[in-house]
Specification:
The protein has eight helices and ten strands. It has helices at about 40-45, 70-75, 90-100, 105-120, 135-145, 165-175, 190, 210-225; strands at about 1-10, 15-25, 30-35, 55-60, 60-65, 75-80, 150-155, 180-185, 195-200, 205-210. The two termini are about 35 Å apart.
């Protein structure tokens, strides 16, 4: 369970989230809103990439602050919009192995090979990671996070930079994962496939409910300007 309690967050003097309280228990949660609505900051709060200015965020009772923050980050994986922002190592296999660096080398090799195979990247193990196509990079970013076996995966607009074919590929992959997925997206069709959808506007959580109703609420919000 992820509990966000009375969270406000500021960047300098600018308030980007205002008094957000929500409990997340569903398997698939969508987060939608206009650019600048606060949804990406909300996503980063869920695994401690951002700490709230006030209020608290807990995952299974563990605070994202202090000593428990590292444990939260192990259980809540995060995928960025731009995969180049999280690809760290020179080659594909090395990048997947990076998150497993505390395991014995023999175990790492097996886990990496299995993960690359499942993401369709087995033939690219020794390729320069940053020279992959956009779709392959996003698959690598997902693979490198999921190989560590987090309980929850938070994705911040993971299809924004992808063409239609790769968008469908990534969304299908996310729909089939055993992990709980929290998906920040501008793709309203993807939001409709969630179990629950949150709508943000001007730093506030303004709607929380069933996907169809949430998407209609958002469309009316946009129409109203």
């Amino acid at each position: 369970m992820i509990q966000v309690d009375a969270v406000t967050h500021r960047y300098g003097d600018r308030v980007v989230l205002r008094d957000v309280t929500v409990t997340l228990t569903e398997q698939r949660v969508g987060v939608i809103g206009a650019n600048g609505s606060g949804k990406s900051t909300f996503a980063r709060l869920l695994n401690g990439l951002v700490l709230p200015t006030s209020g608290s965020v807990t995952v299974d009772g563990l605070s994202t602050r202090g000593r428990s923050g590292a444990q939260v980050r192990r259980s809540v994986g995060f995928v960025f919009t731009d995969p180049d922002a999280q690809i760290l190592m020179p080659t594909v296999a090395e990048d997947v192995a990076f998150g497993l660096r505390d395991l014995p080398a023999a175990a790492v090799a097996g886990r990496v090979a299995e993960a690359l195979e499942s993401f369709g990247l087995a033939g690219h193990a020794d390729h320069p990671a940053h020279l992959l196509s956009g779709g392959q990079k996003q698959l690598l970013a997902l693979c490198s996070v999921l190989v560590t076996e987090p309980k929850v995966l938070v994705c911040d607009e993971p299809t924004t930079l992808l063409d239609l074919r790769n968008t469908r590929r990534v969304l299908t992959l996310l729909s089939e994962l055993p992990q709980r997925v929290i998906l920040v997206t501008h793709d309203l069709d993807a939001a409709l496939a969630m179990d629950r959808v949150l709508v943000f506007d001007d730093g506030r959580l303004v709607f929380d409910g069933l996907p169809g109703t949430a998407v209609e609420f958002y469309k009316e919000l946009v129409s109203a300007g």
